[in-house]
Amino acid sequence: MSRRLPPLYALRAFEAAARHSSFTRAADELSITQSAVSRHIRTLEEHFGCRLFQRNGRTLTLSESARMLLPGVRDGFAALERACATLRSEDDILRMKAPSTLTMRWLLARLSRFRHLQPGNEVQLTSAWMDIDHVDFNLEPFDCAVLLGNGNFPPDWEVTLLFPELLIPVGSPALIDVQPWGVRELAQAELLHPTPDRRDWRSWLERMNLAEQVSLKGGQAFDTLELGMIAAARGYGVSIGDLLMVAEDVAQRRLSLPWPTAVASGESYYLVWPRTRPGSERLLRLGTFLQSEVDAMVLPSVEILR
Question: Considering the entire predicted model, what is its pTM?
Answer without folding.
Answer: 0.72
